Amino acid sequence: MIRVRDLHYRYSDSGPILRGLDFTQAAGESVALLGANGSGKTTFALHLNGILQCQQGEIEVCGIRLQPETLEEVRRKVGFVFQSAENQLFLPTVLEDAMFGLLNQGVPAAQARSLALAILETMHLAEYADRNPFHLSAGEKRRAALAGVLLMEPELLILDEPTTFLDPHGIRELAVMLNRQPISKLIVTHDARFALQTTTRAVFFDKGRILAEGPTPEIIDRFDWL
């Protein structure tokens, strides 16, 4: 699903952020990226659908070498849910937001509406279909953003700090919904309990390098991450 070799990256106003990362993820696997702020987790994740361009190294996603001419193809296979759900919600209603990607792909409006309503039902958001997404709670916004991404049927789902601003009930509800998705997942998180609920393997980042990886409970215990 993911194969990364010798990935380096630095922002123009900083020193090295990623320092020769090697990483693999199998199809169907759920992996947590753990580590302190600034350790490179999100920067790494943003490379996997080309939001950040590879400066040095090689990236292969879903069997496709990531490069300018393959970027559009890779992005169709990778769904990304950002830390701030409001970055992905911009239309007047929840239903319109959910339909947006399908309509852009040329799906007829009636079919897009039917598919969107079905996934909103799955996400327990059907009653909010005609509501402005900015009037939702943090957990509802997160689920609305996730609904739009899942409608695109990605092979890989990446979530950046998905529990931010969620209360315990919202976190549990999100974990249940993610565990129902039979696709590969990569979850950037500081929430060890959420990682335990949703992933089987964890990778611990430190200063732009992968310091350790293994079963999620072992990595959390090793680094006292609770």
Quick rundown:
The chain has helices spanning 41-47, 71-77, 94-104, 109-122, 138-150, 168-179, 192-198, 216-222, and strands spanning 2-10, 16-25, 30-35, 56-61, 64-65, 78-81, 156-160, 184-188, 201-206, 209-215. With 226 residues, the protein is α/β, with parallel strands linked by helices. The strands form two sheets. The chain has a six-stranded mixed sheet with strand order 6-7-8-3-9-10, with helices on both faces.
The value of Rg in angstroms is 17 Å
Number of helices: 8
Net shape: globular
CATH architecture designation of the domain at 30-40 and 78-222: 3-Layer(aba) Sandwich
> H/E series, N to C?
EEEHEEHEHHHEHEHEEH
Q: What is the SS-derived class?
A: alpha/beta
Mean pLDDT: 92
Fraction of helical residues: 25-40%
Unreliable sequence segments: none
Task: Give a quick set of tags describing it.
226 residues; alpha/beta; Rossmann fold; six-stranded mixed beta sheet; four-stranded antiparallel beta sheet; 8 helices; 27% strand
Tell me what the structure shows.
The chain is an alpha/beta fold and 226 residues long. It has a domain at 30-40 and 78-222: P-loop containing nucleotide triphosphate hydrolases (Rossmann fold, 3-Layer(aba) Sandwich). It is 35% helix and 27% strand. The chain contains eight helices and ten strands. The protein has helices at 41-47, 71-77, 94-104, 109-122, 138-150, 168-179, 192-198, 216-222; strands at residues 2-10, 16-25, 30-35, 56-61, 64-65, 78-81, 156-160, 184-188, 201-206, 209-215. The strands form two sheets. A six-stranded mixed beta sheet has the order 6-7-8-3-9-10, with helices on both faces. It has a four-stranded antiparallel beta sheet with strand order 2-1-4-5, with helices on one face. Helix 3 packs across helix 4 and helix 3 packs parallel to helix 5 (138-150). The protein starts with a strand and ends with a helix.
